[in-house]
Every structure is written in structure tokens, then in C-alpha cells.
TrEMBL record:
Residues 102-259 form the CP-type G domain. The gene is rsgA. Its EC number is 3.6.1.-. Zn(2+) binds at C282, C287, H289, C295. The keyword Nucleotide-binding applies. GO terms for cellular component: cytoplasm. It comes from Micromonospora sagamiensis. InterPro entries: G_CP_dom, P-loop_NTPase, Ribosome_biogen_GTPase_RsgA, RsgA_GTPase_dom. The lineage of its organism: Bacteria, Bacillati, Actinomycetota, Actinomycetes, Micromonosporales. Belongs to the TRAFAC class YlqF/YawG GTPase family. RsgA subfamily. NCBIfam families: ribosome small subunit-dependent GTPase A. This is Small ribosomal subunit biogenesis GTPase RsgA. CDD domains: YjeQ_EngC. Keywords: Cytoplasm, GTP-binding, Hydrolase, Metal-binding, Nucleotide-binding, Ribosome biogenesis, RNA-binding, rRNA-binding, Zinc. It is an enzyme of class 3 (hydrolase). It is found in: Cytoplasm.
Length: 358
């Protein structure tokens, strides 16, 4: 009998719904079962099925593309048996993607089918506005709802001032001051999370400690940070999905040192909404907000309504995103040309073979 989302002991605690169940009909007919990927490492993944977790193989896409490779949070069609194998991925309703650490034209998937992005930043170190803007861009671009969580309030000198600074950088985003050590606002954070929640942030931000507090037990590895700069070692080395005691699931991720953008135009518009709004009042439609006359953005800076640092960050991230997009376009054009060459070569070989027949 096909699994349905009404089974409380099955996949419902991992986010399976009636809508997903209906889209799975053709896979049921093929003898496949639904599964959610909780962890991926080197050609194998841990997949959660209605009967429990299993290790499964999957075929890497060709040509290689990280965005088409199974990722933590993906829903998949699994062929069960003595050697379980992932046959297909279900369409993602959201995805957190950054540029590959190798600086290739491919994006790197951080998590799939996410509903809430918890951006964790430590109050034990000064707030890095540029890093927060990058993390917010990733979050908004994914289609999920970001929440900024300022951790380690017990080590902070003035958490109220940092809260105000973060809130000014992220209009429309909830900002919460927490402490896993004292339990401050952990219950508030738990109530704000829904569906699938991913923890994002730099090493040393206390993501795994926060995750363990939310999970109610020590399931995630934690480590210490250096006192001189507040940075931590990469204790979390892979993404992992775990069910939360109050419902929903949590994805912990390794600390992000590099946060390069990949096709994140919509996210940038959301993060820098005030600049986008001011730009509509510029005299010229293609205003670069530099030295053009009638620039509403520069006028706001001169009036003290917009920090100049904010505009510099906006320009930098837009240039970076445009460069990543151009790299992707070039790769797609090259792949198209290579496919056409392969087809032409195959046809020529076919014609030669046919012409050589008696």
C-alpha cells in the first residue's frame, strides 16, 4: 500500500505532505518509495524512508552539475532493495545556493526545500555588516524566510546596540538575541521556526550549540573558538538533517568562510530594497549612482539618510553577481555548442557507416 502523509510514524515528521504524495504517483507505479536525503558524502547518501534511514547510491549527473546532484533536504524517489538507489529528485520548492568554492561557473547547493533560514552570528565578536548582507542575500534568494539570531548573549557587552545595528541592515527580518548557555529566547526562536530550518553562519557563531539546544540533546559536534578573533574550527564538516522535538526538521551546515553569490539578483533587491526604491527617483533610468546629476541615491547619502558603506556594498555584490551570471552564461553556451558538435559527429558517423554498406 502506498505511503501517505497521514502516517504519523512515517515521513510526516520530516515534512512529507499530501501534495508531495500526489506528485509521487508515477514513482509509486514504478515500485519506488519516497525518501528525504539527510546527508550526502562521496557518492552515497543517507535517505530517510517511511521505514527508517538507509544508505543509498546515486548516479552523478553528466556533465557534472552540483545543482542537479542530491543535496541535504532533497525529496527523492528511491528504489528499495539490497542495494538502495536514488532514481530521481523531486522538484525543489526552495534552494540555498552559493558560488562554488572552486570559483567555477557552477553553483554549490547548501540545502534544499528549506522554509526558514536561521542566520547565526555571535555577539562575542563585532557585527560584520558585509557578511550579514551576503547571508541575507543567500537566504532571500532561496525563497525561504530569514531570521537573524544573535548568539552568545551571555558574552556580549551591549547586545541591544548590536540588535539595533542588525535590524537596520535587515528591514522586515526578525532579529533575536539568544544564549544557549542561559536559554534566553530559545523558546521564542523555536516558535518562529516552521517546516525545514537551516542554520547558516560563520565558524564560531555557535550554530551547532544552538542546534543541540533546539534538538534537546547533544547530536551535533561542537568546538571552541579562538579568543583573539572569535573564529572556530570547522567542527561540522557536512550538512545533516534531523527532526526537531516540536515538529519540523533542522539542517546544520559547516561554517561559511566564503559566501560568494550565484545568480542572486532577486535576493540583492530584497536586501538593498531602500536603494532599489531610491533608484526609481533618479533622473536617468540607467543611473549608476555615482556622479550622475539628479541621482536620488547620492542625494540620500548627502542628506545622511543612507550610509555610504551601504551603497559600496550594494555595488560590490551586484558586480560579483553579474560576473557569476556571465560565467554561467558562458558555460551554458559552451555546453550547447559541445552538444551540437556531439550530435553532428554522431550523424556523420552514421552516414559514413550507411554509405559503406553494400
Amino acid at each position: 500500500m502506498p505511503y501517505t502523509h497521514t502516517d504519523p510514524s512515517g515521513l510526516s515528521r520530516y515534512g512529507w505532505t499530501g501534495t508531495l504524495d500526489q506528485t509521487f504517483t508515477e514513482h509509486y507505479d514504478a515500485g519506488l518509495v519516497p525518501a528525504r536525503i539527510s546527508r550526502v558524502d562521496r557518492g552515497l547518501c543517507t535517505a530517510i524512508t517511511a521505514s527508517g534511514p538507509t544508505r543509498a547510491t546515486f548516479a552523478a549527473p553528466y556533465p557534472p552539475d552540483p545543482l542537479l546532484t542530491p543535496c541535504t533536504g532533497d525529496w527523492a524517489a528511491l528504489r528499495p532493495g539490497t542495494e538502495p538507489h536514488l532514481v530521481a529528485l523531486l522538484p525543489r520548492h526552495s534552494a540555498i545556493v552559493r558560488s562554488s568554492a572552486s570559483r567555477s561557473s557552477h553553483g554549490q547547493m547548501l540545502a534544499a526545500n528549506v522554509d526558514t533560514v536561521v542566520i547565526a552570528l555571535s555577539l562575542a565578536t563585532p557585527l560584520d555588516a558585509a557578511k550579514l548582507e551576503r547571508l541575507l542575500t543567500l537566504a532571500w534568494e532561496s525563497g525561504a524566510q530569514p531570521v537573524i539570531v544573535l548568539t552568545k548573549a551571555d558574552l556580549a557587552h551591549d547586545p541591544t546596540a548590536v540588535h539595533a545595528e542588525a535590524a537596520a541592515l535587515a528591514p522586515g527580518v526578525d532579529v533575536l538575541v539568544t544564549s544557549a548557555a542561559t536559554g534566553d529566547n530559545i523558546d521564542v526562536l523555536a516558535a518562529m521556526m516552521h517546516g525545514t530550518t537551516v542554520l547558516l553562519g560563520p565558524s564560531g557563531a555557535g550554530k551547532s550549540t544552538l542546534g543541540n539546544t533546539l534538538l534537546g540533546e547533544e547530536l551535533l559536534a561542537t568546538g571552541t573558538v579562538r579568543e583573539r578573533d572569535g573564529k572556530g574550527r570547522h567542527i561540522t564538516v557536512r550538512r545533516e538533517l534531523l527532526p526537531l522535538p516540536g515538529g519540523g526538521v533542522l539542517i546544520d551546515t559547516p561554517g561559511l568562510r566564503g559566501i560568494s553569490l550565484h545568480d542572486a539578483a532577486d535576493g540583492l533587491e530584497q536586501v538593498f530594497a531602500e536603494i532599489e526604491e531610491l533608484a526609481t527617483s533618479c533622473r536617468f533610468g540607467d543611473c549608476s549612482h555615482d556622479t550622475e546629476p539628479g541621482c536620488a541615491v547620492q542625494a540620500a547619502i548627502e542628506a545622511g539618510e543612507l550610509p555610504e558603506r551601504r551603497l559600496r556594498s550594494y555595488h560590490k555584490l551586484r558586480r560579483e553577481n553579474a560576473w557569476a551570471a556571465s560565467r554561467t552564461d558562458a558555460r551554458l553556451r559552451e555546453e550547447h555548442v559541445n552538444r551540437q558538435k556531439a550530435i553532428t559527429s554522431h550523424l556523420r558517423a552514421t552516414y559514413r557507416f550507411r554509405d559503406q554498406q553494400p
